[in-house]
Specification:
Number of helices of chain B: 1
Distance between the termini of chain B: 41 Å
Radius of gyration of chain A: 13 Å
Order of helices and strands of chain B: EEEEEEEEEEHEE
Shape of chain A: globular
Largest interface: A-B, 26 and 24 residues
Largest sheet of chain B: 6 strands, mixed
Oligomer: heterodimer
Helix content of chain B: under 10%
Structural class of chain B: mainly beta
Order of helices and strands of chain A: EEEEEEEEEEE
């Protein structure tokens, strides 16, 4: 069966510091991968998606970037965090028909 | 552009009451999928149901039921005889298959969620 991992589970970072969140999927090959963010009081917003290694599409302009160095690895990064980057970050795999979400990373930027 | 509206930010009911969570969506496509997810305090999203745009049959699963009406672009979710364990944030979401959307992301567009509180 497929499993999706995210780490760290929680993170507190100061403004201006870098960020790296990791997502890995097990039990499937060449998955579509997604990064969503849930800001306080708001729904989940699609940030990035990837259909293959090195292929990244961004849905909204922002301070973040994503990379897919391996088939089942998806990384969310920032060079300098902003207060507005705080939120709950969820990685998912699947398609428009079905998506499976990881446990999420709660990021607090102070 | 696609949009999902969950007008109810928070609902509080007493256990055993029935409760309906509203969801209204907007899309220009004729082929799309609608979803409901549950998010307990742990944060992980739990898949509840998926409907495609060609299937307007209502669905019942135990105490849960869903009413899909294309005429009003609504996909409402009802919990019958609510229980404390139903307390969570519930999200309605919409997706359009890339094949039909003409490109772009095939990720989900979520509503802002409804925080459901079931009081004992």
């Amino acid at each position: 069966s497929q499993t999706i991992h995210q780490w760290p589970a929680t993170l507190v970072q100061p403004v201006g510091s870098p960020l790296s969140l990791e997502c890995t999927v097990e039990g499937t090959s060449n998955p579509n991968l997604y990064w969503y963010r849930q800001a306080a009081g708001r729904g989940l917003q699609l940030l990035f998606y990837s259909v293959g290694i090195g292929q990244i599409s961004s849905e909204v302009p922002q301070n973040l970037s994503a990379s897919r160095p391996q088939d089942r690895q998806f990384i969310l990064s920032s060079k300098k965090l902003l207060l507005s980057d705080s939120g709950f970050y969820l990685c998912a795999w699947g398609t428009s028909y079905e998506q499976y979400f990881g446990p999420g990373t709660r990021l607090t930027v102070t | 552009a696609q949009k999902v509206t969950q007008a109810q930010t928070e609902i509080s009911v007493v256990e055993k009451e029935d409760v309906t969570l509203d969801c209204v969506y907007e899309t220009r496509d004729t082929t799309y999928y609608l979803f409901w997810y549950k998010q307990p305090p742990s944060g992980e999203l739990v898949f509840l149901i998926r409907r495609n745009s060609f299937d307007e049959q209502n669905e019942i699963s135990g105490r849960y039921s869903w009413n899909f009406q294309k005429s009003t672009s609504s996909f409402n979710f009802t919990i019958t005889a609510s229980q404390v364990v139903d307390s969570a944030v519930y999200f309605c979401a919409l997706s359009e298959p890339l094949l039909y959307s003409g490109g772009g992301a095939d990720g989900l567009t979520f509503g802002k969620g409804t925080h459901l509180i079931i009081q004992p």
